[in-house]
Each structure stands twice: as C-alpha cells, then as structure tokens.
Amino acid sequence: MSKKTVYKIISCLTLMGSIILHTTVFAQQRFTKQGEIEFEKRINMYAFIKKALSGNKEQAAYMERYFEQYKTTQPQFSTMKSVLKFSGATTLFTPVKETEVQPNNFFNNMPGVNQVNTIQTDLEDKTSIIQKSVFEETFLIKDSLRKINWKITDETREIAGYPCRRANALVMDSIYVVAFYTDKIPVSGGPETFTGLPGMILGLALPHDHITWFATRVNDMPMAKNVLTAPAKGKPMNQTEFIATLQTAFKRWGDYAKPYMRFLLL
Three-state SS for 184? Predict the structure, then answer.
C-alpha cells in the first residue's frame, strides 16, 4: 500500500471521527423546548391517614377501627396520572381521568388525596389560570404565580432519562417541598402549581405528607397553540377571593377544616 493511499485512509478516518464527535456533542446539547410529560402522583395512604388522624385526637379515636378495616381491603399506595404539556413559556397541567372506579369511602375523599386542579401557566407573565373542583363547585382562579424561594443543592438523580438536580423549599410557611429539575428542558415549569426553577421539574415530593409526583415519560413533540388553551369553566375569582370563599364555607368546621384549607391552597 502506497504512502499516498495510507494518507487518504487516515484523512478519511479523521473526517469520520470529527463528524461523529460533532454529532454526539450536538445530541448531548439538544434541549427539549416543547412536548408532553406524563406524571404519576403516588400517595402512601397508610402513612397519610395515620398522620391525618394523629392531628385530631377526637377523630382518631372514632376513626381508628375504620382505618384498620381500610388497611385490610385497600392497597397501601394510591396512584394517579396527569399530563403536563408545554411550549415556550406556556404550560398546561391536566389530571388524567381514572378508568377504575375508586371505592367511595371517607379516606379516599380526604383533602390532598384527589387531583382537583387543571392549570394553565404563563411563565413569561408569571400568571396562572386554575380550574379547581371543590366538592360540588368549580372555581376559576386567575392570579400571579406563587413565589417560591428554592434552595438548589448538589444532589442529582435521573428521572425519565433526564439528569436532574435537587432543590428544597418551604411553601405556605409549613409545607416542606423537594423538587428535582432538569436544565435539559429550559422551561421553568412543573406539576401542579410548582414553578420557578432553572428548568422543568420532573420530580416533586411532599415528604412529610407522603405524596410524590414523578415523571414517567417525556415526549419531545411539537405543540399546537390550541392544545395549551386555558380552562374556562368555573366561578371566576382571584386567589384572595378564593381564600375568603373557603374561610366562609369552612367557618363552622373548626380544626376539621384545616387540612382542606391546606391542600386546596397548595
């Protein structure tokens, strides 16, 4: 084999290597800017109920035997699905209707257990429109986004194929929140009303309440504008008016109303 031929082969291999390297780097730097994220909400019902009953001694004494019966017939974990669609600065969070009919008992209707929010968020204007179901009524709450003072940590993990970093926060003065976000999706959104991190939240936990939301799949796909249309059904009001409405409705409930207020405002 002549030197000229050898040089040609080396040049060809070098060129191919360069193309592969550039292709790999481009793939690694590719960001998902619009698409659909499937979430699973998971609740440890045994721990959730136990904590709820411990906060009210009178209720605990009365409900203890029902709780023991519940544990013999119902699974420890309750799971629900939801979808977060996003494009640019707009996101739309929607619960997925359950196909299986849940047993109609007191514990399955506790505050915080069910998914009651459909939320369109405008991250550029920092506003949201929340369609919220409360018992037999539907409200349409238009207001600014909640300001969350996140503290980003060095802890990392992979969720739905994306590298994520942990952040912690305290909301409503008492609810401890753990979030995992990825900067590979440069949208400052997340499930439910949680936003404000430098990337999409793919994992969320309320450790003291035994509730988590984790992405199970991210679909990188174009989103038409009409897919992200805000909910329109419900009694319109802002957050302050909604709080006043709840306080009036729960005025006679005493301490029993506290968990309802807590989760409905979360």
Answer: coil
Q: What is the pLDDT of residue 60?
A: 67
- Over residues 223-251, the pLDDT tens digits come to 998 999 999 999 999 999 999 999 999 99
Region of residue 66 (phi > 0: left; psi between -120 and 50: alpha; otherwise: beta)? alpha
Q: With 0-12 CB in 10 A as exposed, 13-18 as middle and 19+ as buried, what is 240?
A: exposed
HSE of 104 in the Cβ direction (CA atoms, 13 Å)? Answer: 0
Kindly give, in sequence order, each residue whose CB lies less than 8 Å from that of residue 179, ignoring residues fewer than 6 positions away: 150, 166, 167, 168, 169, 190, 194, 197, 201, 203, 204, 205
What's the pLDDT score for residue 58?
A: 66
Helix (H) or strand (E) holding 225: none
Evaluate the CA torsion angle 96, 97, 102, 104 in order and state its sign: positive
Give residue 15's pLDDT.
42
Say how far apart CA 128 and CA 187 lie, in whole Å: 15
